């Protein structure tokens, strides 16, 4: 059998898109990257890697102001309310964040300001006068996203001020032919305004080198690489400040009426959350183990490097990994011979997001990092955070629709995570998402498929195997029996399932979770077939008892192995199966919500965190003869087909959230859901994902 275990633990940063604080999470929000990032993190921990999984709520930007107005509350009250709701949703789904925080912390504000100051000192943040849109009737800044018009490139009549959904090009509102406000239809007024622009053209060469290298690694989904390379063609400076009073202050005199653009700050959240995590541990520099390249960790930046040289992460060795020599060759191979995808030093930064946010993770954020590191055409030197790593992987998912239509809270066409968990538990939803989610193409949630998968795969497949195994052991022996000599059929099925550690693991490591889960469920089928082939329930004679004990021991081992293999996908069920087989305590550690105080301004807020150090290893653990096995309670619950009609009726009768103009809805699955261009703030596409 092939147990995968790493020769040396790697530092793995799981950077999960930041939900926008505009409402409770619906299942589309968690399908694309919430559950997949958790499956990945849990699996990486099982391999023994040092995982740091961070995210938080994205709380700045114009849509928050608009929504707060609509709800008659202050922006702060609004984000406090939805931050708490979102924290609960994600905790209940079992998403194992090391830290899930928020962008309104004093820590985040300070990190964003430091990033800005160093980027500016390095010459990549330049002041420019530009034209910003305001609403003539309210005098308020009109975000790009809320301006609609005809695309000057393809002629699409409903292009947004930030992007054309038809041809995919980034736009400025001033580019639009016949621009109009999506809020009230009026023609926006464009005024002269001063902003800081990120000088992306000065970072283009460094970005190109980095993307080419990422392409060569073969780690990225081809569409993500292509898209990212294509948008480099049209690279130009982008405004990183806005005329708005809700957001992070710009640490420059005379700029007190402006704030940072929400996307400039949201992506910095990956870094600031890592720093907050280390500060909360009382080990202030711990985050550097994930973020600093070897050069910075030893205090040697390379200010004279050309952009091409310095954008090569492979230039640095593994010196930041506690003095271990560069172990690329040994650490990147597992016992199955598959290659772990990491950059130098065995460090892997995996970013998870919906497809509408690729640009921020494959262009804006890497550009901010390169500018901070001083690796663009203007040179420069890193600030106090040192030489920061760029993303290793940008894992983008597609969108989930529901019953063939886009989610819409205003039309009441929505399924909230909290409702599904309350009625059916977290794992049936996690299972559906992993088995049928929008991994590489848009997918559709239907209640019929949810019920069908729950009943025929979870209940009749996996749950049945656990139940019949435990029931037979309980009835015949009351504990896991000692086996007699193994027959060929026993050896064979044990080997088949043990091989799953290699095959399923390799697929999860490559972000092919659908295929990984399908492979795991195929192995469940093999184990069920073993029961039909060996017919232990027919072995009633005294002379057959040794054979019966052998089969039941084998089955207990198969259930144990399969439970380990399925644990990243179904962590709650894994804990129950563990108990069924006589195990004690928690098998898969769970996240918890914790009320903390802001480290700098003492405000209270809830975080998601957890101690995942007891995560079991990704390997067979031999079952212990004599472990008591009681009468099992079902691990999964069979759903009556009437659930489908019930849920569809509930959906049809759902009261739409009438106060919220759906055109202003943000889907919130990502850091802001907003596309940057010149002036104005964020918005998001309504209802996708
Ligand atoms: Zn277009």
Q: Helicity level, as a percent range?
A: 40-55%
Number of helices: 21
Shape: elongated
Overall mean confidence score, pLDDT? 87
Radius of gyration: 26 Å
Q: Give me the secondary-structure category.
A: alpha/beta
Query: Largest sheet, described in full?
Result: 5 strands, parallel
- Extended strand count: 17
In spatial order, strands of the major sheet run: 3-2-1-12-13
Would you kindly provide a written description of the structure presented here, covering whatever features stand out?
The chain has 689 residues and is of the alpha/beta class. It contains 21 helices and 17 strands. Strands 3-2-1-12-13 form a five-stranded parallel sheet, sandwiched between helices. Strand 16 (592-597) and strand 17 form a beta hairpin. Helix 3 crosses helix 4 (75-92), helix 17 (488-509) runs antiparallel to helix 18 (513-534) and helix 17 runs parallel beside helix 19 (545-566). The chain starts with 10 loop residues before the first strand and ends in a 37-residue tail after the last helix. The model is unreliable at 1-6, 295-343 and 658-689 (pLDDT under 50). The protein binds zinc ion (ZN). Zinc ion binds at residues 151, 153-154, 156, 159, 164, 166-167, 169. Zinc ion (ZN) binds next to loops.
């Amino acid at each position: 059998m092939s147990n995968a275990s790493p020769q040396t633990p790697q530092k793995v940063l799981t950077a999960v898109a930041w939900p926008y604080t505009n409402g409770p999470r619906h299942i589309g929000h968690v399908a694309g990257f919430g559950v997949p990032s958790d499956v990945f993190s849990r699996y990486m921990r099982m391999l023994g890697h040092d995982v740091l999984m961070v995210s938080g709520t994205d709380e700045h930007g114009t849509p928050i102001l608009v929504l707060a107005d609509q709800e008659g509350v202050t922006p702060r009250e609004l984000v406090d309310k939805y931050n708490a709701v979102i924290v609960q949703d994600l905790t209940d789904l079992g998403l194992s964040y090391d830290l899930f925080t928020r962008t309104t912390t004093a820590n985040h504000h300070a990190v964003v300001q430091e990033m800005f100051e160093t980027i500016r000192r390095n010459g990549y943040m330049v002041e420019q006068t530009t034209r910003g849109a305001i609403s003539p009737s309210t005098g308020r800044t009109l975000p790009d996203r809320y301006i609609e018009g005809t695309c000057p490139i393809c002629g699409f009549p409903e292009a947004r001020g930030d992007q054309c959904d038809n041809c995919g090009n980034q736009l400025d509102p001033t580019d639009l032919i016949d621009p109009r406000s999506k809020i009230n239809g009026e023609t926006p007024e464009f005024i002269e305004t001063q902003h800081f622009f990120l000088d992306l053209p000065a970072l283009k060469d460094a970005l190109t080198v980095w993307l080419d290298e990422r392409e060569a690694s073969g780690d990225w989904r081809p569409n993500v690489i292509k898209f990212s390379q294509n948008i480099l063609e049209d690279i130009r400076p982008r405004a990183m400040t806005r005329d708005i009073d809700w957001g992070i202050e710009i640490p420059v005199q005379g700029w007190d009426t402006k704030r940072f653009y929400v996307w400039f700050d949201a992506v910095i959240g990956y870094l600031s959350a890592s720093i907050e995590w280390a500060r909360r541990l009382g080990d202030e520099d711990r985050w550097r183990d994930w973020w600093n390249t070897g050069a910075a960790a030893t205090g040697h930046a390379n200010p004279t490097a050309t952009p091409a040289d310095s954008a090569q992460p492979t230039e640095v060795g593994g010196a930041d990994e506690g003095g271990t020599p560069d172990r690329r060759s040994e650490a990147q191979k597992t016992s199955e011979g598959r290659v772990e995808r990491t950059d130098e030093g065995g460090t892997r930064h995996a970013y998870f997001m919906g497809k509408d946010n690729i640009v921020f993770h494959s262009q804006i954020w890497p550009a901010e990092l390169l500018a901070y590191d001083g690796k663009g055409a203007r040179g420069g030197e890193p600030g106090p955070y040192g030489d920061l790593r760029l993303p290793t992987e940008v894992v983008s998912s597609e969108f989930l629709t529901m019953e063939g239509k886009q989610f819409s809270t205003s039309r009441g066409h929505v399924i909230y995570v909290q409702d599904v968990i309350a009625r059916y538990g977290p794992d049936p939803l996690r299972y559906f998402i992993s088995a049928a989610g929008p991994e590489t193409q848009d997918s559709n949630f239907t209640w019929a498929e949810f019920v069908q998968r729950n009943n025929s795969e979870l209940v009749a497949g996996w749950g049945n195997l656990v139940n019949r195994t435990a029931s037979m052991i309980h009835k015949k022996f009351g504990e896991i029996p000692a086996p007699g000599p193994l027959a060929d059929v026993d050896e064979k099925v044990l080997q088949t399932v043990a091989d799953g550690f290699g095959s399923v693991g390799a697929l999860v490591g490559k972000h092919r979770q659908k295929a990984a889960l399908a492979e795991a469920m195929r192995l469940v089928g093999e184990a069920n077939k073993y029961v039909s082939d060996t017919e232990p329930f027919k072995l009633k004679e005294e002379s057959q008892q040794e054979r019966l004990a052998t089969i039941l021991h084998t089955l207990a081992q198969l259930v144990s192995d399969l439970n380990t293999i399925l644990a990243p996908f179904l962590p709650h069920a894994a804990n129950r199966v563990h108990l069924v087989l006589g195990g004690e305590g928690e098998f898969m550690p769970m996240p918890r919500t914790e009320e903390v105080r802001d480290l700098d301004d003492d405000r209270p807020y809830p975080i998601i965190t957890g101690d995942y150090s007891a995560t079991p290893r990704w390997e067979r653990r031999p079952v212990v003869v004599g472990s008591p096995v009681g009468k099992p309670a079902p691990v999964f619950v069979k759903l009556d087909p009437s659930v489908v009609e019930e849920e569809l009726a509930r959906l049809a009768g759902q009261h739409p959230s009438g106060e919220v103009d759906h055109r202003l809805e943000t889907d919130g699955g990502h850091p802001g859901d907003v596309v940057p261009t010149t002036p104005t703030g964020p918005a998001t596409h309504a209802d996708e994902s």
